[in-house]
Amino acid sequence: MVIWSYQKMVKDDIKGVNMRIAIIGGGAIGLLTAYFLEENYEVTIYVRSTKQLQQLSNKGLCYKRGDKQEWKHINIDLFQNWQAKEEITFVTVKQYHLEAIYKKINACVTENNGFVFLQNGMSHLQEIKKLKTKQVMVGIVEHGAVKVNDYTVEHLGVGAIKLAALYSVNSFLKTLVGDKNPFFAIQEEKDYLAIMQKKLVVNSLVNPLTSILGIKNGALLENPYFYGLITAFMEEIAVILNLSEIEKENYFFYCVDVIKKTANNKSSMLKDIEEKRSTEVDSILGYLVQTANKRNLSAKLTESYYNMVKGKESS
């Protein structure tokens, strides 16, 4: 079944305020977020590639889920033209692309701008705290999504986006929370460190091992030898992060649940390795190694897996 919907929605009839949202990053999460938020807000995607700009401008954004396929026209521009004019900006690029964004935020921002950072790992948190604005939320993405090409995103698994404030939250950010769309729920969490740490554990257990072994996520549970690897690694991670027994158990069960829901998916790190792109291993396992060093702890498994991924990344 194919649904064609190229007509632009009139946002003023849907919302009391014609709120503008910027999406920085044209990857899977950026395209997915833009597709759903465009229903209620005036959305602009900012990308680095002129080729992607042209593709999205000419073809529109294509969303796939199962046998559904829908097209939408969405505003598109180059990142170099972003001036933080929108009330809310979602930053969906990978961590190694954040530096240029930090500079532009500090140059353009006012307290009337809200920012949502959706990155894997935790090494970016200290840098975000140095920004001139306090209207910042960080979050985790529980959706499974893949960028098929420059203008198409495939929604492989429906989850939620969970956001938590670093400081105060402005009224614009509050309007995002509680969206009732069953395919794109946005939930507010109280403790940003807890949600980021929980996702860090998932990223640490799943991404490196699937990329090293060259397997889909589900194999980590299906193969008893691979399952032994993630249980042993969980023990080391729990020590590094100083998790209680209850936290360790909850985080591991959460990870198992994520693996089950994404069993047929390839992790983002494995796809990066296959497509010869840089990975986010520095912001994930690199963060754990740094934390272990600060606490004078052994991190033999973490260091070994880190080196393996870096080796594959450079080969």
TrEMBL record:
Keywords annotated in UniProt: Membrane, NADP, Oxidoreductase, Pantothenate biosynthesis, Transmembrane, Transmembrane helix
GO cellular component, one term: cytoplasm
Enzyme class: oxidoreductase
Catalytic activity, reaction form: (R)-pantoate + NADP(+) = 2-dehydropantoate + NADPH + H(+)
Presence of keyword Ligase: no
Signal sequence, start to end: none
Pfam families named in the record: ApbA, ApbA_C
Primary role: Catalyzes the NADPH-dependent reduction of ketopantoate into pantoic acid.
Protein name as catalogued: 2-dehydropantoate 2-reductase
Organism: Niallia nealsonii
